[in-house]
Amino acid sequence: MGIFKKKQQVVKFETIDIPKFRYHRNPIDTGAFIENKSEKKCNSCNLTSKYIYLEPYYSKDDVTCLCPTCISNGDAHSKFDLEFQDPECCEEITNKSILEEVCYRTPGYCAWQQERWLACCDDLCEFIGCLDWNQIVLQGIEDEITAAILSNETYIEVGHSLEELIDAINSKDVYLCVFQCLHCKKYKIDINMS
Q1: How many CA atoms lie within 13 A of 4 on its CB side?
Q2: Domain boundary among 110, 136, 151
């Protein structure tokens, strides 16, 4: 028995590298890109990439899979007139080409409510991720994040204690979307509630 073993198929990916995204540095860590275990082809270039992007995007077309390259070079935006981030939900900056880079050529992120892209120093910030408190502590940024929380309008309006918010973050009732300024390196947060 076992004489006729099924030969394991090796997937050959046509593209493997992930381009660098200035405003979303670690898209694998944030979950924006996932490993392409089902060998889906990119709807834009029709190639099989090792990593794929499934959501979020806004388009009239039925797009189900995009490769990192077609996001980065703008082909996905051009072909499907899609946005990865709503321009109206980005904080205001003067340079509209930066807004276009984030909305049309940068992978987005998923949260409970409408995703917001934060700005600082007249530039959009880099998205770090939706982090729980353990991840924040592991990165050694708990003091900076605590300061960002205490000055956040949503936190002030809700009126809960910091401990209550941390419990809600760890239980995934609240997404703490963390951004960092590319210039002054200050952390900013968006409190996204379920």
Answers
A1: 0
A2: 110
- Exposed (0-12), middle (13-18) or buried (19+): which is 194, by Cβ within 10 Å? exposed
| Nearest-angstrom CA–CA distance, 165 and 149 | 9
Using DSSP's 3-state secondary structure scheme, residue 70 falls into: helix
Q: Do 106 and 126 sit in the same domain of this protein?
A: no
CA atoms within 13 A on the CB side of 3: 1
Co-location of 120 and 80 in the same domain: no
Q: What is the token pair recorded at 59?
A: 């388009």
pLDDT of residue 160: 83
CA–CA gap between residue 150 and residue 102 (Å, rounded)? 27
Here the tokens at position 14 are 């046509």
Residue 2 forms part of a structural domain: no
Sign (positive or negative) of CA dihedral 46, 71, 190, 35: positive
Instruction: Record the tokens describing residue 16, joined without a space.
Output: 């493997």
Confirm if 169 and 146 have CB atoms less than 8 A apart: no
Q: Which domain holds residue 35?
A: 11-110
6 lies in some domain: no
Residue 81 in this model has a pLDDT that exceeds 70: yes
User: What sign does the dihedral 27-124-176-145 (CA atoms) show?
Assistant: positive
Q: Token digits for 131? A: 């982090």
For the cut 70, the answer to whether the pLDDT of residue 50 exceeds it is: yes
